[in-house]
Design goal:
Helix content: over 70%
Number of domains: 2
Radius of gyration: 21 Å
Distance between the termini: 24 Å
Order of helices and strands: HHHHHHHHHHHHHHHH
């Protein structure tokens, strides 16, 4: 795993991907820090991360799009299976390399509040709130990187990987607004759940290449929803906004930008990272036997 980690880390800086990712984050963070803390004179440096969270929609696909897609396109992924390491070690090594690249601009951003302190006559700068927001920002990024890595493992086309990652992260970014946009009616909830279940079943098919698994997944998830919609539709009323609110990662992060610290949110982000890392391992294991 260590050898894979070193190889991947070197690959990000032999090309331009690592430099573009780091520069993009630092430029955006620097611009918002200059605008919020110096132009507006606000001591709340944590608001910088609140306003910069959109950058993940661009930066994460740039970082993750080649992680496995490039290996599949060049057929070098078959060489990975001949190495004396497990698939899990390969995936974790690649994931840790991406986390390391992501950690570089975050560590630089940790220095910014010390500079802002010199120009804060009000003395309202709170290091606790700031570094809590930085920690949550890093954990959110780690969770999104795992999602992007998983998407990259599903295709051999780098651009498809980037586009699908962008669309997926955009949906995650807008999840809070979507929760307020959809009606509370049971019929609307049933339709939206049917679409979501179909997409999940399609994902199961792509991961297993089995039509049977895809249909079984669809029926297991869809039948209870249909039964409930006919037997007791009131149970579905208002359920969709609640589900979207629970799944909204960005809304959970905004709590930290507002000065609140919640360990459960950190655990939630860590769980997402582990879950999609396991999905990636499963996706790569499936490729081993094709």
């Amino acid at each position: 795993m260590l050898a894979m980690f070193k190889k991947e880390l070197r690959s990000y800086f032999r090309g331009v991907t690592g430099f573009v990712f780091i520069a993009l984050l630092l430029v955006v963070l620097g611009l918002y820090a200059s605008m919020i803390c110096f132009s507006y004179g606000s001591p709340h440096y944590e608001y910088v991360f609140y306003n910069c969270s959109f950058i993940f929609l661009i930066a994460i696909p740039v970082l993750t799009m080649r992680s496995f897609s490039e290996e599949r396109r060049q057929k070098t992924d078959q060489l990975l299976y001949s190495l004396p390491v497990s698939t899990a070690q390969i995936v974790v090594g690649k994931y840790l390399a991406m986390l390391c690249v992501f950690a570089i601009p975050i560590l630089v951003a940790c220095i910014y509040p010390l500079h802002v302190r010199l120009y804060d006559p009000s003395g309202l700068l709170s290091y606790t709130a700031i570094y809590s927001a930085i920690l949550a920002f890093f954990c959110l990024g780690a969770a999104l990187i795992s999602i992007g890595m998983f998407i990259s493992s599903l295709t051999e086309n780098v651009f498809v990987s980037a586009i699908v990652s962008f669309v997926t992260l955009l949906i995650c970014y807008l999840m809070g607004q979507l929760a307020d946009a959809f009606p509370d009616a049971p019929s609307a909830t049933t339709i939206v759940f049917a679409i979501m279940i179909f997409l999940l079943s399609l994902l199961a098919f792509f991961m297993t290449k089995s039509v049977t698994v895809g249909w079984i997944s669809f029926l297991i998830m869809e039948v209870p929803i249909v039964v409930i919609s006919f037997a007791k539709p009131t149970l579905l009323e208002g359920l969709l906004p609640k589900v979207f609110s629970v799944l909204s990662m960005f809304d959970r992060f905004y709590m930290f930008a507002d000065g609140m610290f919640d360990v459960k949110v950190i655990i939630y982000f860590a769980s997402i990272s582990v879950l999609f890392t396991l999905f990636t391992v499963q996706s790569m294991e499936k490729r081993r036997w094709i």
